[in-house]
Amino acid sequence: MWKKHLNVYMPSKEGKLCPTLPQCTFTTSAENIHTADAVIFENSQLPLTYLESEMPQTRSQHQYWIWLISECPNYLTINLNSYSAVFNWTITYRPDSDVSGAWGSQHLVYKRLKGADLDPNTDYSVGKTKLAVWFISKCSSRAHRILYAQELLKHLHVDIFGKCGKIVCDKQDFQCTVRHIRQYKFYLAFENMKCKQYITEKFWRHALGNNVVPVVLGAPKEDYELLTPPNSFIHVDDFESPKALADYLKLLNKDTEMYNSYFKWKTNPPKNIPVDDGVWCNLCRKLVGICPNTRKMYTNLDKWYRGENNDECEPVNGTYQEVHFTTDD
C-alpha cells in the first residue's frame, strides 16, 4: 500500500491478511514499492492532480496500480482526468469494480448467520424498547437526507446521535454504537448522497448487523433489491410522503408479525450469491488467478466513475448550511 493511511477502510495490520491465500502479503514498506505485484493508492492520499503526486515515476510492466475509494463521486477530492492511464484496477463500492470494495454483501451476511438467526420463530422485537434511531455525522443542509428527515421528524420520534445530534459515543467506539442501536426497531440508513448502488455501512453494519430493520434513502430501490437480502429493508420511495412512512413504522411497531417479516430472509438464503470474502481476500484472489500478459488501463477513469453524463449521483442544490438536530431523550 502506497503510504500508510489510518482509515477504517484500510487494513489494520500488515502481513498475510487472507488465510485462504497465504501467498498474499500486505505491506506499507517503501522498500517493496518496485517489487510488489500490486500497489494500492487510496484516494484521500492523492493530491488534486497526478503531476502534483509523489507516485513512483517508473514501475514494472507486470505491476498493477489500484485506485481505492470508499466514497461516492460527489465526494471526489481529485481531478480524475489528470490520472488518465495511471490505474489498472479499481476498488470501489460499485459491483462493476475490478475488485469488490463494497461495504457489505449478501454473501458475507448469510455467511455470518447462526443459532437464533436460522430459527423462523425468532421474535426480533424482543428487547427493543425504542422505535427509531439515526447516527449521523455529516450535517449539510444540501443533502437530500436532511430535508427528508426534517419532515419525517414532524410525524415520528427519532433519537438522533452523532455530530448532528447528541454525542453519546466516540466515533471509534463501535461497541458503544452497537449498544445503542440494538435498543431500537428501526435504523435510518440514510446515505449522504443519492448515488446508484451506493449502500454503505449504515445498511450493512449498523442496521442488518444489529438485527434492526433499515429504513433506507439513497440508491434506487432496484439497487437494494439487487444487492441486499430480499425484503430486508424499507425504502422511502415506497411512500408518498415522510408522514406516510412514519405511519407505516408506527403500524409495524404495534404488529409483531409484520415486523418480523423483515427478517424472514435469514431462513431462506438464495442460491448462486457472488462470492465475497472481504475486500482484501477479493483482491488476493484476483491477483493469484490473473492470466499472464492480460492488462487493462483506465484511460478515462472520470467517465467510468461519474457516469456517461455525470449521472451516477443526483445533483445537490441550495446553499451549504450545518444542521443540528435536537430530540427529547
From TrEMBL:
Main location: Golgi
Membrane topology: Single-pass type II membrane protein; Single-pass membrane protein
Top-level taxon of the source organism: Eukaryota
InterPro entries the UniProt entry points to: Glyco_tran_10_C, Glyco_tran_10_N, Glyco_trans_10, GT10-like_C_sf
Residues in Fucosyltransferase C-terminal domain copies: 127-304
Chain ranges of the Fucosyltransferase N-terminal domain: 2-101
Cellular-component GO terms for this entry: Golgi cisterna membrane
Family: Belongs to the glycosyltransferase 10 family.
Protein's name according to its UniProt entry: Fucosyltransferase
Higher taxonomy: Eukaryota, Metazoa, Chordata, Cephalochordata, Leptocardii
